[in-house]
Specification:
By secondary structure, chain A is of the alpha/beta class. The first copy, chain A, contains twelve helices and seven strands. The longest helix of chain A is centred in the last third of the chain and has 16 residues. Chain A is globular and about 50 Å long. The two termini of chain A are 22 Å apart. At the A-B interface, helix 2, helix 7, helix 9 and helix 10 of A face helix 2, helix 7, helix 9 and helix 10 of B. The structure holds adenosine-5'-triphosphate (2 copies) and magnesium ion (2 copies).
């Protein structure tokens, strides 16, 4: 079982879109995929038509607060063949305040027990560097950092990379990562310049084929469909397929 | 002195862009404007070419942790005439874990002492509903909620409105708000449908003239210029000017 975390504390850079699309592409090749939506906002759950704030259901918030001690009862089937989901919703937001010891390793512990049930676990992170994202970094085998190709989004990348290095030291094993440029519009000077800046600053850890801006992405989310279901030939769908093929064959190095 | 908070826990919806543009438009009319960047990511500081993580300078993080007890020493001049800034940077991110009592009212207390120095205070919030955003809501006279006109962004609005109602009850005085649709592209069905959904769900509290998607916005941020300096005739600049004129003349009700 491989665990991939999708994180960046900059908001709106395509974390949820990347998690959803990679999950659906993996499932389309027959892999068993578990998605974890650890963002209190619950975008991935909404995309998959699951209510992250369902009062009747136990959730990831109960796992972090110690009410339940395993993931299995929290997992929902989704409308997408081969993709399951566990989510936490707004109740996750208060976790940062608990400050319980060892809170950073909850996900790693419970995921180890599911190793025979799934081929891939994809974790969609909130736009923060708090205890939720730290959990995902501590547990994952690969960190994907979607980064919008524009000025404001580039600035925060250093903070994200520092946090990754800190978690790598604390957990005592390498934490591979790949920066994935998103929302790229080749016609605008601002995007082209931002992409060049990324290429110069992080040549070895940057996926060189930016995911293009594509209205089909938003349409797919509004319909609850995978990107490939809604628009298999779209530029964004084929860009995500190239990324998946690379990750499956060669691992993280671009 | 009027205090406006710009908040939404959904990421990438235009909070920083809205704060920066409204601040520069207010300053252009001769008002004295103080911006507070309480996002650990520091986008607004970067836009204004100020380093939010300057180790040598005291910052908002010191205010929240109790090291300093007033805002005045934390305020920077910016390249924009009439606009000042205080920021906090990555050190703000650990605040949620302190859980000190009364942490939610720090900003309100220190801002009251600056009432004669500024006409407007604009607070750019992080994409979370933690103690930083609660501080801004507790202290403000008006809450602006930028909301991207698309499916994933609409879903989280209810959470934001519940938090607003909670803070209004706790602080014992009305908390006016206005939902500002952003990143609107009238050519795409997904945007038009999302805007209609907003109009039906929140008719009385929605600004009816969405801020259009406009590449000039990203160019201005990359150059560190105000939107009006970079492209005064752009569709986004005139949309923001309409919003400011309305807020100055009529108050929040759309
Ligand atoms: N390639 C793309 N083309 C067009 N729109 C896109 C693309 N990728 C993402 N988007 C849109 O951009 C917005 C932000 O994407 P998304 O919600 O996936 O980002 P995020 O990083 O998960 O945000 P948050 O920080 O709130 O978690 C959404 O409206 C999404 O539909
Ligand atoms: N009207 C617009 N037209 C085009 N691009 C825009 C517009 N408004 C904002 N943007 C761009 O969208 C991205 C997100 O905007 P911004 O950073 O202001 O959002 P935010 O809500 O502050 O994000 P965060 O959640 O990370 O704080 C930025 O790249 C910005 O330049
Ligand atoms: Mg997301
Ligand atoms: Mg911002």
């Amino acid at each position: 079982m491989k665990i991939w975390a999708v994180a960046n504390q900059k908001g709106g850079v395509g974390k949820t879109t990347t998690t959803a699309t990679l999950a659906s592409e993996l499932a389309a090749t027959g892999k068993r995929v578990l998605c974890l939506d650890i963002d209190p906002h619950g975008s991935l759950a909404h995309y998959l038509r699951i209510d992250p704030d369902d009062e009747q259901a136990a959730s990831l918030a109960d796992l972090f607060s110690g009410e339940v001690d395993s993931l299995a009862p929290l997992i929902h089937n989704t409308p997408w063949q081969g993709v399951s989901l566990a989510t936490g919703g707004a109740r996750l937001a208060t976790l940062d305040r608990h400050g319980r010891q060892g809170l950073g390793r909850v996900l790693g512990r419970v995921l180890a027990r599911l190793a025979d049930d799934y081929d891939f676990v994809l974790i969609d992170c909130p736009p923060t560097l708090g205890v939720l994202t730290i959990n995902a970094l501590a547990a994952c085998d690969l960190l994907l950092i979607p980064t919008q190709t524009e000025f404001l989004a580039l600035k925060g990348l250093e903070g994200m990379l520092r946090t990754r290095a800190m978690v790598e030291r604390a957990r005592g094993r390498p934490l591979d990562y790949l920066i994935v440029p998103t929302l790229f519009d080749g016609r605008t000077r601002a995007c082209r310049q931002a992409f060049e800046t990324l290429q110069q600053a992080h040549p070895d850890l940057l996926w060189p084929h930016p995911i293009p801006t594509d209205t089909k992405v938003r349409e797919a989310a509004a319909l609850g469909e995978t990107l490939s279901q809604h628009a298999a030939d779209s530029r964004a769908a084929s860009a995500y397929r190239d990324l998946i093929n690379h990750l499956l064959q060669n691992g993280p190095a671009p």
